[in-house]
Design brief:
This is Co-chaperone DjlA N-terminal domain-containing protein. By secondary structure, the chain is mainly alpha-helical. It has one domain. It contains ten helices and two strands, in the order βααααααααβαα. The chain has a two-stranded parallel sheet with strand order 1-2. α4 packs across α6 and α6 packs across α7. The protein is globular. The two termini are 13 Å apart.
Length: 214
């Protein structure tokens, strides 16, 4: 696929940022207000399921599993619940870590990241659940550091589809304002490595997200 979106990449990000992928440089174009909201709406297509068409969204099962797992006295739950809850946590953790990666002059506000995630999940995820998951990752990042948390997020995503989805959604949230920082570019490259994606796979996924969002 060919990247057609107008996405700005900080000068030099491809030259000396370890882990950065071969993202195309494009003229800067920052989105705010209604245009930003419209781009957030585009994120919904990056996750499977269209309940309007009768296709169950995986977000619903993931959220239910997360809530069951967190309920007092329920233990670890079934293996299916563990996978679903880990997938929710891993995807949201990857998105948060990329959007708040070190090396950014101005990282998005936590509320902005939360809003993008809720919209990407077609409004199925409860804001309180998203906030709780993001809070656990924020605290983990404070204790363990960025790279350790990104590696942990990668290990929580067991299937290839979940890994693709995590990378696509992380790229989409990073691109939603039309500006890709050096820190975000590096973080996406690191995320791809932790997910076991080849550079070709990651670049194709990135180009597809950028083309879709326009």
């Amino acid at each position: 696929m060919v990247c057609t979106g107008e996405v700005n990449l900080d000068a030099g990000a491809l030259d000396d940022a370890p882990g950065a992928l071969g993202f195309r440089r494009e003229p800067q174009r920052r989105f705010e207000g209604e245009p930003l909201h419209e781009r957030q709406q585009s994120l919904g297509a990056l996750s499977g399921g269209d309940e309007d068409e009768g296709v169950p969204s995986p977000w619903r099962a993931r959220q239910t599993a997360w809530q069951r797992r967190r309920a007092p006295g329920t233990g670890e739950g079934s293996s299916e619940d563990r996978v679903a809850a880990d997938t929710l946590s891993g995807i949201l953790g990857a998105v948060l870590l990329v959007s708040t990666a070190p090396g950014q002059s101005a990282a998005p506000a936590p509320q902005e990241t939360l809003e993008s995630i809720v919209i990407a999940a077609d409004g199925i995820l409860d804001r309180a659940v998203v906030g709780e998951v993001l809070a656990t990752w924020t605290e983990a990042q404070r204790r363990e550091g960025f790279e350790a948390c990104l590696a942990r997020a990668g290990t929580m995503l067991r299937g290839l589809d979940a890994r693709y989805e995590a990378f696509q959604l992380a790229a989409g949230v990073a691109l939603v304002d039309g500006d890709l920082s050096r820190g975000e570019a590096t973080a996406l490259g690191t995320l791809a490595r932790e997910l076991g994606l080849s550079s070709g796979e990651a670049e194709q996924l990135f180009d597809g997200v950028s083309e879709w969002m326009g």
